[in-house]
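Researcher: Good morning. I'm working through a list of sequences from a screen, and I'd like to move beyond sequence-only analysis. For each chain I'm collecting a predicted structure so we can compare shapes side by side. This is the next one on the list. No need for commentary yet; just the structure.
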Amino acid sequence: MNQADRDRLDALKRAKKKLITQKQAAEEIGVTERQIRRLLRKLRRKGDRAVIHDLRGRASNRKLPAETEQRAITILADPVYRGFGPTLAAEYLHKQHQITVSKETLRQWMGKAGLWRAGRRRVVEVHQWRPRRHRYGELVQWDTSNHDWLEGRGEQIHLISMIDDATSRLLARFVRHDSSEENMRLLWLYLERFGRPLAFYTDKAGMFQVAVKTKRQQEREGRDRPQMPPTQIERALRELHVVWIPAHSPQAKGRIERQFLTAQDRLVKGLRVAGVCTIEQANAYLENEYLLWWNQTLVVQATDAADAHRPLGKEHDLAAILSHVEPRQVTNDYTLRYHGKIYQIDRRDIQVGMRKAWLRVEQRLDGIIAVQFQARYVRVCCCAPPLRQPASAQTTEAKPPRLTGKPQRKSDWMKNFSFRSGPSLRQAIEVSNARSGGKFPAQAVSFNLRPVTAFMPLRLASAQRFLAAIEIFRLPSADRRFAPAGGFLAAFVGSCLPTVFFACTIEVLAESRSSRNPLSLFENWPMTFARIASTLFNLLIAFFAFIGTPCKLSILHYCDSPVKFIFEMTQS
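Model: Good morning. Structure tokens for this chain:
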């Protein structure tokens, strides 16, 4: 007789003694009232065996003879069939030895004889007043209150409470964190003090139920909840055979919510008067003062005087049940990993089929790690992780710098460019006369060295010299007629023309480079046009001076844009 049979027997005996009605017994056992009446008649005839099925322990009418089983096991024990599974062994028995047996029956035979070990399988809005339950322990409401219980005199603490629905008997504790571990500690205390209730009634917090992920702007109302893995508390309640009922609203569990309202008034004031500042003092006051007052003053009598709590059995190991349980797979070297650590299974506990099998790893409330395999605990020890081999030093060639499109240093495109002044116009005429044999009166040259930057802001000395020179010298006609054309043409073509074009090009490129914008030449087009126009006018004046036409240039006004030139030409 297992624990479920004992619970059913207890309900039948209370129904037989008229402590509960047949309807209540049917609701507790989970059968109809008609079945309860059958079980009560059977209880009068057979006693406690009434809850055990009559076919339990009896052989099937279609069971094969024991001689056939013995013969099949003797054949499969031969070394020739070592390693045969039930499916292949059933085929060979039928083909070679004319023994017809199903593979599932043969699996049971081989398992009983120790020839086969089966692998572990993976466990795959209207709120109405609700009347109280009839018996103490049928339903217990469970919740946590986040309130400033110490009113700033100490750390932030939380109150976890369990209140019976039938009698309002209260059990509570102050904790630092509202976690699964702290709730399991209070559950352990409740089970040891009162036993296992029939059901717990809680909200849908994350420690009781796994939340279903929903896409943004999508509601789950009206949809069936998909099957989700249980939480640690939900798993523990299943192993304790305690039903968990989720509440859809705070009003549904109004009894414990009203208890929190009372505690936030009377308990807070009592803690203030007692001068409580720590969680230890708060729990002492809660146990010795507040809970004592509550259970003596506010507890009511249940409709049924019977206690629905069930005692803990030998199979209820609270240390194992109320722990953090996770499955882990055994590797080929009989180790498993848990929370970043490697655990080695003791050699004495290694069994056949343990490789790639799944174990139950329990992290208990006291921090101990326990590992269970096929309902047996195995000894494990934490071992150091393997040391990583140091990477071999490899010589790598230096990679060329990555091109980012930006200069990493100042460009040297004008390096070794000569900024020194060239020969003056007087010196050029003298050199030209000496080479050509002509005579040009160099003393007649009169330079007007006013600032050239007011006319055309060139930065090169050669351009300044040229623009100063083309303020044409005033010479009499007779002197100009005797001027050798070859010497002046050589000086003009050899010095003036290359100088002015080079100066204008250098100036424009220098400004476009200083702004780092290739389009600045076109964006500042008025200034560029003014410089080109100035150069053309200067060339024209020089040409008139060369052919003997006296020219007078008057710069009346210069502005940013446009450049205004007024010149008049007179002929002597």
